[in-house]
């Protein structure tokens, strides 16, 4: 057995990038990262969170072409989560892929893994791709080492000045005042 879990963690992140992830991070998980009433699988203490960006030119067209882009990225995330979980299991550790958000809440886990900041619109905003990403994750009992802190790129201050999502939300569901959730 290895004692260099930081090195193994970097290698796992590199494997995820080679499999098609564009952003990867490792975060500790607890019961608050799951839908209320569900829990992490026994012994799972970390999640490997990853993102793939959506092609902006396709997304701004709206309609069927944008929907095709979304489906393509979800397919890539699903494939990646299955292959990465299988890779972890090949080393004798239990791993669960979450190709679609269900019990595991992707946005809080991605935030804790340092992939981006939480925007006022409730989505993750990444430094490289903005909010135009889709997320995936796997959880595992493998004792990987988180290497990042929750992201703070200054988007929170920007969001308080910008207000574009608030002003243009067709359902008026984004309020102008920031709300605290679980103390953050």
- Helix percent reads 25-40%
- Strand fraction equals 15-25%
The biggest beta sheet, please? 4 strands, antiparallel
The separation of the N and C termini measures 38 Å
Order of helices and strands: HEEHHEHEEEHH
SS elements, strand count: 6
Short description:
The protein has helices at residues 5-18, 56-59, 64-89, 106-112, 155-162, 164-168; strands spanning 23-28, 46-53, 95-98, 117-118, 124-125, 133-140. It is of the alpha+beta class and 184 residues long.
Write the layout of secondary structure elements.
Elements: H1 5-18, E1 23-28, E2 46-53, H2 56-59, H3 64-89, E3 95-98, H4 106-112, E4 117-118, E5 124-125, E6 133-140, H5 155-162, H6 164-168
Antiparallel strand pairs: 1-2, 2-6, 3-6, 4-5
Descriptive overview:
35% of the residues lie in helices and 16% in strands. It has 184 residues and is α+β, with helices and mostly antiparallel strands. A 4-stranded antiparallel beta sheet has the order 1-2-6-3, with helices on both faces. Strands 4-5 form a two-stranded antiparallel sheet. Strand 4 and strand 5 form a beta hairpin. It is globular. The N and C termini lie far apart (38 Å).
């Amino acid at each position: 057995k290895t004692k260099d879990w930081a090195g193994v963690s970097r290698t796992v992140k590199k494997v995820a990038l080679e499999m098609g992830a564009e952003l990867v991070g490792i975060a500790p998980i607890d019961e608050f990262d799951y839908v209320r009433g569900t829990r992490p699988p026994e012994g799972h203490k970390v999640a490997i969170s990853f993102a793939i960006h959506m092609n902006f030119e396709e997304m701004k067209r709206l309609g069927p072409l944008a929907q095709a882009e979304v489906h393509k990225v979800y397919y890539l995330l699903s494939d990646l989560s299955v292959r990465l979980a299988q890779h972890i299991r090949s080393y004798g550790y239990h791993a669960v892929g979450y190709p679609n958000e269900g019990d595991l809440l992707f946005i809080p886990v991605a935030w804790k893994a340092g992939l981006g900041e939480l925007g006022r619109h409730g989505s993750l905003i990444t430094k490289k791709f903005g909010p135009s990403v889709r997320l995936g994750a796997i959880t595992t009992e493998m004792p990987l080492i988180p290497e990042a802190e929750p992201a703070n790129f200054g988007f929170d201050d920007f969001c308080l000045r910008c207000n574009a999502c608030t002003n243009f939300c067709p359902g008026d569901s984004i309020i102008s005042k920031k709300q605290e959730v679980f103390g953050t």
